[in-house]
Amino acid sequence: MLDVTKETFEAEVLQAEGKVFVDFYGDGCVPCAALMPHVHEFADKYGDKLKFASLNTTKARRLAIKEGVMGLPVMAIYENGKQIDSVVKDDATVESIEEMIKRHI
Q1: Catalytic one among 32, 35, 53, 60?
Q2: In what order do the strands lie in the sheet with 82-88?
Q3: Is residue 71 annotated as a catalytic residue, yes or no?
Q4: Catalytic site residue from 13, 20, 22, 29
């Protein structure tokens, strides 16, 4: 799991080859913290098929807004610099996140 910042997001996500899973989380976001161990498990399980990254939106607010992140948690999949799928807020369950990953591997 690669921790990206506003400085590295473009190179690691938008310019990456293949698909990239991004976990947008924030400091003090309880659902984000609850999902994080599961997302790390998915990174271990599917990391050979998909690149996994996380971005702390507390430290990258403008970037998060630019990427359409208006509430947390947001799990998104990017391909060729574009967001192609996501699960957001209440829809971001362990099951829905894994289903989204499976659709793209």
Answers
A1: 32
A2: 2-4, 51-56, 19-25, 74-79, 82-88
A3: no
A4: 29
Question: DSSP strand E in 1-105: where?
Answer: 2-4, 19-25, 51-56, 74-79, 82-88
Ramachandran sector of residue 84 (left: φ over 0; alpha: ψ -120 to 50; beta: rest): alpha
List, for residues 19-33, the tens digit of each pLDDT value: 999 999 999 999 999
d(CA 76, CA 79): 10
Q: Are residues 55 and 24 in contact, defined by beta-carbon separation less than 8 angstroms?
A: yes
Instruction: Give the global pTM.
Output: 0.96
CA atoms within 13 A on the CB side of 89: 4
The structural domains of the chain, ordered by start, are 2-103 (3.40.30.10)
pLDDT tens-digit series, residues 66-104: 999 999 999 999 999 999 999 999 999 999 999 999 999
Amino acid at 32: C
Question: Is 84 annotated as catalytic?
Answer: no
